[in-house]
Amino acid sequence: MVMRESEVHDLIQSDKSTKNEILNILKKPLDTEFIHEDRYDINGIIADFTLLHQTKIVGTMECKGSDINTTDYVRGIGQVFQYEHFFEQKYLPKKGYQFDDNFNSALLITSSFVIRSNIA
User: Fold this and answer.
1) What are phi and psi of 15, to 5 degrees?
2) Within 13 Å and on the Cβ side, how many CA atoms surround 37?
3) DSSP per-residue string spanning 54-118
4) Which helix (H) or strand (E) holds 35?
5) 43 secondary structure, DSSP code
6) Are 96 and 112 in contact, with CB atoms under 8 Å apart?
7) Where residue 96 falls among pLDDT bands split at 50, 70, 90?
8) What is the four-CA torsion angle of 73, 39, 5, 120, rounded to 10 degrees?
9) How many CA atoms within 13 Å lie on the side-chain side of 83?
10) Which pLDDT tens digit goes with each residue over 14-38?
11) What does the domain layout of the chain look like in residue ranges?
């Protein structure tokens, strides 16, 4: 099944079981909030999702659909590394928020991309 990135975003936003699976994989509390297309103060970068627990950013997530090319894939990896750099340098990403000590970032890629790309 081919999924566009927008469909991945819609699924995450609308399906509680999908959110819970992501939180379980990332080992985050189930009451973590997903903030969609969240802009960071550091350089204006927009995360597909910021994972917020109480007032701490516990994670960021970039999502890619199965209809991407190599440039989109590499761009997603670069975005994830930027979030990790922000965390490691202790930048304050947004007014009123800090990174949680157990912060991590993730690149979500649909299985149809992996199968189509013959990566598996």
Assistant:
1) -115, 110
2) 5
3) TTEEEEEEEEE-TT--HHHHHHHHHHHHHHHHHHHTT---BTTBEEEEEEEEEEEE-HHHHHHHT
4) strand 33-39
5) T
6) no
7) confident
8) 40
9) 30
10) 999 999 999 999 999 999 999 999 9
11) 5-117
